[in-house]
């Protein structure tokens, strides 16, 4: 039953995040908010909603290792598996702006988290610093958007105000209920198998909350829109660390006894490797995607070996 509840929780969280994003986007559009601002705020936060609610609920329930493990694991999934698989499907072209701005920001966020984890906790002060960095990142991104350096036309379907508000509320309810169900069931499974909360967070929880990015990036690669896909993946990594852990840590300081130096090393190493690949003709080639995927499989194998 716990496994079934985990699946139900994942479905509710993913479906709720989709409804929340649709409703919030429609409301912002009706209020004449520029499309680029909608994309950089509402939509970006919407795609990070699964990770946020799962980590936030995990921290509140006392399973802080699962909360941080979810963020670390999701970023590893994003950087190595999602980009790797998408690049194997079709070589991924990366916009120069992404290589020069987004990837360095993701590297910086990863290094900040790794440094803060050395004392095995994320204090309120650490969380405040992460959130300040997030605000600076958003201010910088929006300033670039106003200069036209990051401008994409997105077709937004008109929606009645009441329907949009209803979707936002429905999405929030699904996110909250689904997150609670998911975290509680995952904790039950972890305890019954003798697996730590951190391990569950790094694998099952992270994989579940990263499903939208995986599907979106592979489809985008097939359609030849890999630049958008990789930009969203990198942006999601920044949001996950700076926004999610920033907000969660300010409300509930987190202990990180289950997150090891190897986990942080893979987090930082993965994004550095992607950054290096991105400088080769601003493209992630198929062999580079295969290498990222192989390294991810090796990391997952190491985690499983630790349990066995």
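-> sequence recovered:
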């Amino acid at each position: 039953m716990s496994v079934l509840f985990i699946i139900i929780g994942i479905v509710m969280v993913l479906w709720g995040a989709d409804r929340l994003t649709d409703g919030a986007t429609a409301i912002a559009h009706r209020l004449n908010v520029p499309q680029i601002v909608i994309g950089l705020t509402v939509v970006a936060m919407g795609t990070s909603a699964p990770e946020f609610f799962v980590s936030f609920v995990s921290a509140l329930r006392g399973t802080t290792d699962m909360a941080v493990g979810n963020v670390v694991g999701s970023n590893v999934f994003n950087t190595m598996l999602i980009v790797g698989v998408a690049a194997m499907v079709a070589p991924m072209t990366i916009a120069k702006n992404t290589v020069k701005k987004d990837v360095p920001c993701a590297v910086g966020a990863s290094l900040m988290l790794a440094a803060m984890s050395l004392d095995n906790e994320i204090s309120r002060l650490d969380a405040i610093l992460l959130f300040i960095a997030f605000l600076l990142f958003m201010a910088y991104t929006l300033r670039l958007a106003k200069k036209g350096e990051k401008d994409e036309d997105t077709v937004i379907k008109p929606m009645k105000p009441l329907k949009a508000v209803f979707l936002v509320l429905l999405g929030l309810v699904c996110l909250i209920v689904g997150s609670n169900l998911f975290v509680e069931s995952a904790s039950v499974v972890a305890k019954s198998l003798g697996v730590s909360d951190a391990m569950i967070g790094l694998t099952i929880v992270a994989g579940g909350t990263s499903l939208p990015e995986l599907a979106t990036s592979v489809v985008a690669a097939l359609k030849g829109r890999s630049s958008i896909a990789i930009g969203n993946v990198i942006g999601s990594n920044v949001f996950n660390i700076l926004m999610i852990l920033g907000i969660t840590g300010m409300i509930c300081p987190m202990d990180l006894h289950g997150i090891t130096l190897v986990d942080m090393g893979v987090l930082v190493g993965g994004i550095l490797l992607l950054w290096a690949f991105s400088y080769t003709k601003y493209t992630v080639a198929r062999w580079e995607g295969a290498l990222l995927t192989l390294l991810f499989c090796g990391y997952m194998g190491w985690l499983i070996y630790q349990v066995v």
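Confidence is low (pLDDT under 50) at residues 149-153.
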